[in-house]
Specification:
The complex is a heterodimer of chains A (505) and B (163). Chain A is of the alpha/beta class. Chain A has 19 helices and twelve strands. Chain B contains six helices and no strands. Classes of the chains: A alpha/beta (505), B mainly alpha (163).
Chain lengths: 505, 163
């Protein structure tokens, strides 16, 4: 093998492993630190900064030191992501809560996921003075970029097959170590000087690590839920990385079955019925819709009943992994395929609404709180105006407010302000059993309180209904979320991140 | 020192461009993962082309900035658009070209590979964060105003006689 070919292959391998590990790191830390926008950007930034450290180190380290760095990082890989989850769980157990020390562990994880791969490019290129440096850079960096594209594509493709992804990464590491030690200067001392010895040791460690990767993964995740989320009887049933987020299903006898998206609790089976009641059942009974649009609700828990209350039902959900988790764990009974008046589309809700010519009698917006930019777009005044333009004259939009109306700077009040800017009438119901409020908005007057109350959940003691001047007074000072004013997403995310880790309230 | 500043400035500018494309396309067109994949894929293709073209670095910088601003100004006109054919992909490729051309120019001038890549990457992180904060606090117009400022800065720092 020529030097050029071996260098190219080494850098394709490094790029591939870099692409694979970056996406995995984003999902892992996004989930462990809870995936608000702030967390996702923090993790991405630290990962890129680690890559920069790798580039800087690569030009300075001796070949022997570089190989040692690679071996240490390869061993970290064999224990990944279990070591990271167990470190988080153990630190939370010791503190009996979360603290800033978790960031130090996260920084180590970012370093071992980036430094070894980025150090190789400057290490394998000649120092200044060589005549064909540019030609060599073109080949070397071109190979690294190609490998990175392959690695990122692979990571996206096999997110729901963690053992396969781990096996591919381990094979990549094996090839990388073999190339570096045999072609680019192996250490002259220690066991690494004999390729056969280290290869035997490596395979001895890599084989059981790959064979038990799946079981160890669920076990280490369970430790995170027991000690970090403090659900003492938690058991993780399901964990996959979709192209959008990590989707986990956790069972706990005392709490019930729960769905977590990037470490944030999305719903639990116990509160599902009340949520579905106010978000879908009640408005559908008020309107008897001919055409209903359900945005979100990936678990499909509303579909069967809403299809029964509507002439035609269209569901739009962006993440197929959430639908899969819903069908496996949250939507019992017959598959929904027997419903002839229901259609499911996997796409972005706002893109769907912008493209459709259909007019709906009911639009149910069941999306998470605006903690990421993608989610926040679906809570803006502009989005509600788009909804209004796709409603029939008697149409109604139903939205859950992720809490009760209180502080005018917080999410519920700002969502209601956005609805009031887009619709002629808005009614808010405050449910104590659901522990949150719901808003109904329409271009036409909404049914009187008596009629809404007649449809309230049988578990409800007394439903509080706000409208008109009373509602205006409750949200006084609240500004709608606008596409050009989404600071709430970062502010709330930062507040939550800091307060969770002991820096503020 | 000037090589360090050049690499940082190029990184900040490129971070602003790539993040700007992501934020505006995910808002206006679709937040589906295909948008992310298209932006990253087209950018990588642009970078690869930039490694091999022999055009003046300033020219690739200006063309990349102009195509970026054109896309941003088009997307600024709409809140949410119905999905159309990905007309913005060639623009992203054009903007990514400078990313590859910057490195070949720097290395041809005798700069060390490690520090050049490191400083550019640090700059990229800063640029990406500035784009996010500017877009969230100051709205979509910040997404084309900031790169114009950094583009002028990078153009002034770029060598007059490329290698």
């Amino acid at each position: 093998m020529t030097d050029k070919l071996s260098r190219g292959l080494t850098l394709v391998c490094a790029g591939l492993l870099f692409g694979l590990s970056q996406l995995q790191l984003l999902r892992e830390l996004g989930s462990l630190l809870y995936g608000e926008e702030v967390v996702l950007w923090l993790v991405s930034s630290v990962a890129l900064a680690s890559a920069a450290v790798g580039y800087q180190l690569g030009g300075r380290l001796s070949r022997t030191a570089l190989v040692r760095v690679l071996v240490v990082c390869a061993l970290f890989h064999l224990a990944s992501p279990h070591w990271l989850r167990l470190a988080f769980a153990e630190l939370c157990r010791l503190r009996e809560g979360t603290g800033p020390e978790l960031f130090a562990v996260a920084a180590i994880a970012a370093a071992v996921s980036a430094i070894p791969f980025c150090a190789l490019l400057p290490a394998l290129l000649p120092k200044s003075g060589s005549k064909d440096r540019v030609a060599q850079l073109r080949l070397a960096y071109g190979c690294e970029l190609t490998g990175f594209a392959l690695g990122t594509s692979l990571a996206l493709w096999c997110g729901d097959l963690p053992t396969l992804r781990f096996a591919v990464q381990t094979a990549g590491w094996t090839l990388l170590l073999a190339l570096v030690t045999t072609r680019h200067g192996a250490p002259t001392t220690g066991f690494m000087r004999n390729p056969h010895t280290w290869l035997a040791v490596w395979l001895l460690l890599a084989t059981p690590a790959t064979a038990f990767h799946g079981q160890l993964g669920l076990w280490s995740l369970t430790q995170v839920y027991v000690y970090k989320h403090r659900i003492t009887d938690a058991r993780v049933l399901w964990s996959v990385d979709s192209t959008y987020q990590r989707v986990e299903v956790v069972d706990a006898p005392r709490t019930g079955r729960m769905l977590y998206l990037d470490g944030l609790r999305n719903l639990d089976a116990g509160s599902l019925d009340t949520l579905n009641h106010y978000l879908a059942r009640l408005p559908a009974k008020l309107r008897n819709p001919a055409h209903t649009l359900l945005l979100g609700n990936g678990t499909l828990s509303m579909v069967e009943e809403l299809a029964g209350l509507s002439g035609q039902l269209t569901s739009v959900e962006i993440d197929p992994a959430v639908v899969d988790a819903g069908a496996r764990f949250f939507t019992p009974g017959e598959p929904l395929t027997h419903l002839t008046n229901w259609h499911l589309y996997y796409t972005d809700g706002k893109a769907w609404l912008a493209a459709t010519n259909q007019r709906y009698d009911l639009i149910v917006v069941d999306v998470p709180s605006p903690l990421t930019l993608g989610e926040s777009y679906l809570h803006t005044q502009e989005f509600y105006e788009l909804c209004a333009s796709r409603l029939t004259d008697r149409g109604l939009v139903s939205v859950q407010l992720s809490g009760s109306i209180g502080n005018p700077k917080r999410t519920p009040a700002r969502i209601v302000a956005g609805l009031r800017a887009a619709f002629a009438e808005v009614v808010v119901v405050e449910s104590t059993t659901a522990d949150r409020s719901f808003a109904y908005a329409s271009p036409q007057p909404i049914d009187p309180d008596m009629r809404i109350r007649s449809q309230q959940s049988s578990k409800e003691q007394e439903l509080v209904i706000l409208r008109g001047e009373t509602l205006a007074a409750r949200i006084s000072g609240a500004q709608p979320l606008r596409l050009d004013d989404l600071d709430l997403v970062l502010r709330r995310g930062l507040e939550r991140l800091l307060s969770r880790h002991g820096w503020g309230q | 020192m000037s090589a360090t500043i050049r690499a940082w400035a190029a990184g900040i500018h490129l971070g602003l461009l790539q993040t700007g494309y992501l934020l505006s396309l995910q808002r206006a067109i679709s937040a589906a993962h295909q948008t992310y994949a298209t932006v990253v894929g087209a950018w990588l293709v642009g970078s690869l082309i930039g490694l091999f073209v022999r055009l003046r670095p300033r020219l690739t910088l200006v063309v990349g900035l102009l195509t970026y601003v054109a896309v941003q100004l088009t997307l600024t006109q709409v809140d949410f658009a119905a999905y159309t054919w990905p007309w913005w992909v060639p623009a992203i490729v054009c903007s990514g070209v400078y990313s590859g051309r910057f490195f070949t120019d720097a290395i041809a001038a005798g700069e060390d590979v490690g520090p050049t890549f490191a400083h550019e990457t640090y700059g990229f992180v800063v640029g990406a964060l500035v784009a996010l904060v500017a877009a969230v606090f100051f709205g979509r117009s910040a997404l084309w105003l900031c790169p114009i400022a950094t583009g002028i800065m990078v153009a002034l720092l770029t060598r007059k006689r490329p290698h």
